[in-house]
Amino acid sequence: xxxxxxxxxxxxxxxxxxxxxxxxxxxxxxxxxxxxxxxxxxxxxxxxxxxxxxxxxxxxxxxxxxxxxxxxxxxxxxxxxxxxxxxxxxxxxxxxxxxxxxxxxxxxxxxxxxxxxxxxxxxxxxxxxxxxxxxxxxxxxxxxxxxxxxxxxxxxxxxxxxxxxxxxxxxxxxxxxxxxxxxxxxxxxxxxxxxxxxxxxxxxxxxxxxxxxxxxxxxxxxxxxxxxxxxxxxxxxxxxxxxxxxxxxxxxxxxxxxxxxxxxxxxxxxxxxxxxxxxxxxxxxxxxxxxxxxxxxxxxxxxxxxxxxxxxxxxxxxxxxxxxxxxxxxxxxxxxxxxxxxx
Length: 343
What we know:
Number of domains: 3
CATH superfamily of the largest domain: Nucleoside Triphosphate Pyrophosphohydrolase
Order of helices and strands: EEEHEEHEEEHHHHHHEEH
Oligomer: single chain
Distance between the termini: 55 Å
Shape: globular
């Protein structure tokens, strides 16, 4: 779209559209990414002329709003996604608007002020035109500290905790050191503080502020000069990993009170398949019997009378989402029962 300019300002404003497209395949939550060097990113590169040439980092599907052909923001998003990936989206909801003036190191003075409206889309992974420019990625590759399905990730104690404690100690004032340490403990569940799965964005932003992730910085890091710490997770272009962290936290919260998880499942599924998809999103194992009791009390699923014979053991009954629950209750989520013990 033509950049908007205030009559009394020389700063132009451009509306961008980002898509976080989520699927769960073989118990792996995955994100559809594109490369910024692809031909279909010419429009984005034109908007961000200060971005370094040849940037090969993964990016979320993105495009500028074009009022001449996009009658709504969502239609514009769907159009860009189909153009860039060949995928026609189903379930889509607006996620958040990212509008800080200098959101990344690339947005220098004089460049357009890009306000990005991000959307969350849930799909069942299907055929896409697989090229080096369009790929499904494991979302825990971007946030390895978020996957607790096999227990607390060793990365936290071995690398993240010492790095963040060093960052806290590097603060020049005692009060600042205390505030940083408290923030580290609460955000990452250290020294007796509970782990909150929904704090995905807070954890990423803390690592970003401490200079521990690979995305370019705005001079926020206050680690001592010459300090060297391991970098965590797969980086993404611009501030797209921050957008992805926002989406992961939103989805983790939403599965508790909305039946969005069924958008990621085939029309019929076993209860074990449903549990594994929920676990993959929540990043933690669930107690099987408690989970099934929640499903039964909530009336979320109903049997189809058919069975999955491919389990290798006793055939498992196939279920489907019971859509009448949408009329019966205001918050028909699957809930998250207690964590199961894993030996």
